[in-house]
Amino acid sequence: MATLSTPNGYTLDNSGKRVVVDPVTRIEGHMRCEVNLDGNNVIRNAVSTGTMWRGLEVILKGRDPRDAWAFTQRICGVCTGTHALTSVRAVENALDIKIPENANSIRNIMQLSLQVHDHLVHFYHLHALDWVNPVNALRADPKATSELQQTVAPHHPKSSPGYFRDIQTRLKRFVESGQLGPFKNGYWTNPAYLLPPEADLMAVTHYLEALDFQKEIMTVRTIFGGKDIHPNWLVGGVPCAINLDGDMAAGAPVNMASLNYVLGVIERTIEFVDNVYIPDIIAIGKFYKGWLYGGGLSDKALLAYGCIPDRANDYSPSNLMMPHGAIINGKLTEIHPVDLTDPAQIQEFVPHSWYKYPDETKGLHPWDGITDPHYELGPNAKGTSTNIEQIDEGAKYSWIKAPRWRGHAMEVGPLARYIVGYMQNHRDIKPQVDETLGALGVPVTALFSTLGRTAARGLEASWAAHKMRYFYDKLIANIKAGDVSTANTSKFDPSTWPSEVKGVGFSEAPRGALAHWIRIKDGKIENYQCVVPTTWNGSPRDNQGNIGAFEASLMNTKVARAEEPVEILRTIHSFDPCLACSTHVMGPDGQQLAEVKVR
Q1: What DSSP assignment string belongs to 208-246?
Q2: Among 8, 46, 130, 225, which is disulfide-ready with 554 (CB 3.0 to 4.6 Å)?
Q3: pLDDT value, residue 580
Q4: Could you say which DSSP state residue 125 is in?
Q5: What SS3 state is found at 171?
Q6: 305/555 Cα distance (integer angstroms)
């Protein structure tokens, strides 16, 4: 390939200088990115590769569907319960199981807690260092930093000059020790970093505060799920019993003491997000306004399944508090309904993925999905199968399949949810977005950008924190009315099931639209397929030549220093890629690692 035009509106040219970033992600390194730069260091071709195989679908075949949540939850150690939630919904959908209202409220609280927790970790610990220079913070004036803090976030109590001086001293000792830990390998002399020293010191301080706070917010899922990072779930409801007079101890029922503790965590979560996280995004955004343009998809193809049902057992769009719908061809006012059971809507393709289909000119709906790994490097790849130097994007080049909605490569995640919601005049989302755009002095089109994607994630964290309080109040009111039911076990026995059924469960994970499809036959899993957010965003090319969201977002980005491509990291990290959900395990030279027999 020299120059190639794609159906979704991009002109690819791989004739320039090839730059490889491997790994891309800070959280786990299963993603590789290669770009071609022209003579002006502008990206003219982008290739996103998932470098390891996810084999959960194969492992699940023949197992008890009531156990599927425990396996799928281990897809990721970051999303924790969202895969489990999606899995139990798939089984409940297949078997027509209804859950109690208390279970719906508790599930929503756990899911919303995860959303806030994940967004905080993403911004401060996985993405902030793309914008914030911790070394530059050593030059800051603590008094001026205090004044900046009081201007940017006047309601945050930790703002004295002495407090920032102590943080700066700790940071100085850390840097001088030579053990930079999370700050190692940064491009700290790169001119792409624009914050003044005081803003850097303020942001690094909040980085440390968020590190402490994330230990607290996870206790919400520990109380309702028994543990974290992988809490317990249950087909038919939630596993925690409610006994207001019980003792607060490990394994004990949820009681008033634990409920009061949850309330305290929710209140502190709202305070931290609204008083620290949101002000930081706006403050940093003002220095990086140029990043409010670029990094979006030219065809504005966005997908949201919706999530957070207000009332139990109703997954219709009108009952989902997170937006539902699809936007294609840049037509923002046309919101299309999404039907996950329709084979004409969702298909997965593999012509550029390391899998085999009987007919690779066609896509497969997940109910009929095939997970048959086939690893081989293309004829134009460089290196070996275990030491790739350059991917051949004209052949198979990723362990991620290529899901498409009505043939379109879609972006999923907070930005997709927020734009769909904004265009639907969502009563919570539209005022949030308008206020933020006003603070930055930019039009709504600025959302389609790297920084717009980052801002949407922060706004959603605030929305989710407040909705935690909504469902907490709803749970308490229901308990006060005498309802303490948390599970429906009437169909838990396989003898009550039909001989053959299928179902789908969906949610909105922190990174975007997530769904699990299941086929059950004679009480066992016959087929199971997960299409996860990073499968959508990180997909390779499809059979029509459409490129995925990661690849599309990098196109036409100018890189200041080819050897220090912080611009690539900024844009890809704005999606919060988590390749563990899309890829898993592969052995050297592709040999079989193990054979698992299910009794």
Answers
A1: HHHHHHHHHHTHHHHHHHSSSSS---BTTB-S--B-TTS
A2: 46
A3: 62
A4: I
A5: helix
A6: 27
Helices and strands, counts by H and E, the chain:
16, 14
5 phi/psi in degrees, rounded to 5: -100, 135
Q: What length does the chain have?
A: 599
> Could you report the per-residue pLDDT of 206-256, keeping only the tens digit for each?
999 999 998 899 999 999 999 888 899 999 999 999 988 776 554 567 999
Contacts of 359 (CB under 8 A, 6+ apart): none
Q: How many CB atoms lie within 10 A of CB 371?
A: 22
Answer yes or no: are the C-beta atoms of 365 and 347 closer than 8 Å: yes
Q: Which residues neighbour 190 within 8 Å (Cβ) at sequence distance 6 or greater?
A: 560, 561, 564, 566
Rg of the chain on CA atoms, in Å? 24
* Structure letter (DSSP) for residue 253: P
Q: DSSP secondary-structure letter at 359?
A: S
Long-range contacts, 226-229 (Cβ 8 Å, 24+)? 226/251, 228/80, 229/77, 229/80
- Which DSSP string corresponds to 273-341? IIIIIHHHHHHHHHH-GGGGSBBS-TT--EEE----BSSTT--SGGGBSS--EEE-TT-TT--B---TT
Give me the chain's average pLDDT, please. Answer: 91
Angle (CA) 520 521 525, round 5°: 45
Task: Name the nearest CA neighbour of 504 among 331, 354, 353, 338.
Answer: 338
Residue 562 one-letter amino acid: A
DSSP-assigned letters across all residues of 370-435: ---B-----TT-EEETTEEEE--TTS--BSS-EEEETTB--B-SHHHHHHHHHHTT-TTHHHHHHH
* Cα separation, 35 vs 583, whole angstroms: 21
Provide the token pair at 237: 């409801």
For residue 1, the tally of other CB atoms under 10 A from its CB is 12
588-593: long-range contacts (C-beta < 8 A, 24 or more apart)? Answer: 588/386, 589/385, 589/386, 590/373, 590/375, 590/385
Indicate the pTM of the whole model. Answer: 0.93
Look-up: residue for tokens 């084999």? 55
b/e for 151-170, b at 16 or more Cβ within 10 A?
A: ebbeebeebeeebbbebbee
State the sign of the Cα–Cα–Cα–Cα dihedral 316, 317, 319, 320. positive
User: Quick one: average pLDDT of 183-204?
Assistant: 92
Sign of CA dihedral 283, 284, 290, 295: negative
